[in-house]
Amino acid sequence: MDLKEIMSVSGQSGLFKFVSQGRNGIIVESFADKKRSFVSASHKVSTLEDIAIFTDGEEVPLKDVLKNIHELEPGIQVPDPKSAPDDLKKFMEKVLPNYDRDRVYISDIKKLVSWYKSLLDLKLLNFEEEAAPGDKAKTKEKVEVEPEAESKNKSKATTTKAKKPVAKEKKVSGKKSEK
After folding, report:
1. 0.85 cut: is pTM over it?
2. Which domain, by its residues, includes 100?
3. Is 152 inside any structural domain?
4. N or C: lower Cβ tally within 10 Å for the chain?
5. Ramachandran quadrant class, 137 (left: phi over 0; alpha: psi -120 to 50; beta: rest)
6. Are 62 and 49 in contact (CB under 8 A)?
7. Is residue 22 part of a domain?
8. What does the alpha-carbon distance between residue 88 and residue 79 come to, in Å, rounded to a whole number?
9. Could you tell me the CA-to-CA distances from 148 to 45, 151, 152, 158 in Å, in that order?
10. Are residues 86 and 122 both part of a single domain?
11. How far is 44 from 24, CA to CA, in rounded Å?
12. Closest among 70, 12, 6 to 37, alpha carbons compared
């Protein structure tokens, strides 16, 4: 599950997919109706990867909270976002027992539930694939490190070759002008 491309836009309901960078904002596509729209730079836009839930200790990334819901969901029915506030609070206590009750509002829990349902319906929640991208990332790091080392060696060789002729020319031209 890659939450980098999935966005929440203030003032608009639902989730959006990043499409392109515009001149004074970004272009996004709604997951609900597949319509593209321009979001100006004055709107608050957050990727789901950047969102975290306040707890009594450190903040917990949204990805971890969604994973907790996914693990509990077969045993617990995910409430409707329009459920009573007490039902939403009970659900949140089961998902994240140490969430900060003063800073996490009912509206935040409603968003969490609706986002989870949307991501589940869109089949964007794939927690089983998490081990595979880590392995790919390690492979990419190894591949990237090797070309950098080669390019550094090449750049040193090129720099050395370029410096010698330039240095000789300066000495020769400097001697001619002095004589």
Report:
1. no
2. 52-129
3. no
4. C
5. alpha
6. yes
7. yes
8. 7
9. 35, 5, 6, 15
10. yes
11. 13
12. 12
